Amino acid sequence: MGWFSKAKDGFFLSTTTPEGIDRSQYLGVVNGEAIIGANIFRDMFSSVRDVVGGRAGGYERALSGARDAAVEDLIEAAREMGANAVIGIDFDYEVLGETNGMMMVAVSGTAVKMG
Question: Which domain holds residue 7?
Fold first, then answer.
């Protein structure tokens, strides 16, 4: 995933138990969210592609962008707490709106200071 390479200054996103690295201090839970709206034209073309067996590239790109934005928010929140890593990353996806016209991508994890 592209956001691994974007994490700078010693930041990394990992499991809850990275082997061989001492977690010296747990700083708390951090979150990041992004909401994307569905475009009616993209919806139409995605439906056509789904019928003929293709992939919905427009949706995939939008979802990837939302995921990247949510991770950037998570990293920023962790840095503000003085963390140099986030462990236990979890992604959630939720359809929102009366007509299901939006999607929320949420990411959470534990900000830690590695020793």
Answer: 2-114
